[in-house]
Amino acid sequence: MSLTEIDLHKELKKYFGFSQFKGLQEDVIASIVNRNDTFVIMPTGGGKSLCYQLPALIEEGTAIVVSPLIALMKNQVDAIRGISSEYGVAHVLNSSLNKTEVKQVKEDIVNGVTKLLYVAPESLTKEDYVDFLKQQKISFLAIDEAHCISEWGHDFRPEYRNLKSIIQRIGDNIPIIALTATATPKVQEDILKNLGVQKAKTFKASFNRPNLYYEVRPKTKNVDADIIRFVKQNNGKSGIIYCLSRKKVEELAQTLQVNGINAIPYHAGLDAKTRSKHQDMFLMEDVDVVVATIAFGMGIDKPDVRFVIHHDIPKSIESYYQETGRAGRDGGEGHCLAFYAYKDIEKLEKFMSGKPVAEQEVGHALLQEVVAYAETSISRRKFILHYFGEEFSLETGDGASMDDNVRNPKKQHEAKEELEL
Ligand code: ADP
Ligand code: MG
């Protein structure tokens, strides 16, 4: 089907009930429908899923969607089934299925019912699946969270590395759509090179979050008291506090509780039931504050998180951007406060010391950027956006005044020196 025959707005309304595309969605979808290799870089919450879901629903055949997490796939499949009456329209193919279920999935694909097939990269490597998919009509292949391909991303997964050769075995003329919220120039280059789609049409949205206020404070031994004060000043608002270790999560959650703050802990050491209970309590606003490790957040879509505090500095600017990005999704206020002590950087360096040398080098380079961010006296927004390869103008950019350095500038000459990013 060619674009001229399709009214994308009508299809959007029909399948999703939305009357407007968000940001670059329409252009991206047009590119996919025209069978281009397509590269989409949009911040979290930008609406990347719809970019491949809508064309998949419109086009003939099955779109294969590679996604790193089973939980994420399940959410997406449920959401798609919510908008379509047909059961087989979206399926997950992974190791959790039994033989009968696999057979059903395959039948739905053969019969042309399945429009979206979510797979984990490791399932895609299975001979049996490759042989099967090779014989099917595949509309395109979407690779979600494509930064997992790059060791310069914040979530490198070696299984993502072999995708290109598998795709070629399934068919050598299948358009490839890569999507990510990770935009550092290095990661972008890695993605395109690894997938062999250097000529892909690229769509990049701005990463600026004008409503987020960025602040860094020195971390002293009174950091817990500082946090308590901050939370009390923001009484009743939703917030996330990130800590590096499970132990610290438990301790801090308790300290907050003792101080009359409605807080709960969240980390991967809690059993699944407790984790999901605590997550729901936060979403339903039975508690104000979640104290968490980075295990908390993927796929969390609470629009009115008003602050994200980092008790410990994260291991990359990328992670910091992702984690703070959970604040102010609704466009309202979002205060991003990081506590920083160089000692913590040394601690993170030490954690890495057991890892392979190449990994340590990457880790070290990423950490140096974090140090530069924490210690800079220029606009933090400008710093973050520069990291993502984006120019930001302090004169005309949105949210230019929304950080501590801009509101309370340090001495001119210091600032000037540090401008050389
Ligand atoms: P991303 O993968 O980029 O982080 P998602 O695909 O999860 O973002 O979408 C984020 C939210 O935006 C979802 O709740 C989705 O329903 C919503 N959304 C996507 N496209 C539109 C649109 N055109 N109009 C309104 N809401 C949209
Ligand atoms: Mg997504």
From TrEMBL:
Domain Helicase C-terminal: 222-379
Sample GO molecular function, one term: helicase activity
Cofactor(s), names only, from the UniProt record: Mg(2+); Zn(2+)
Catalysed reactions, semicolon-separated: Couples ATP hydrolysis with the unwinding of duplex DNA by translocating in the 3'-5' direction
EC assignment: 5.6.2.4
Keywords on record: ATP-binding, DNA damage, DNA recombination, DNA repair, DNA-binding, Helicase, Hydrolase, Isomerase, Metal-binding, Nucleotide-binding, Zinc
UniProt protein name: DNA helicase RecQ
Organism whose genome encodes this protein: Zunongwangia endophytica
Residues of the full protein shown: 1 to 421 of 731
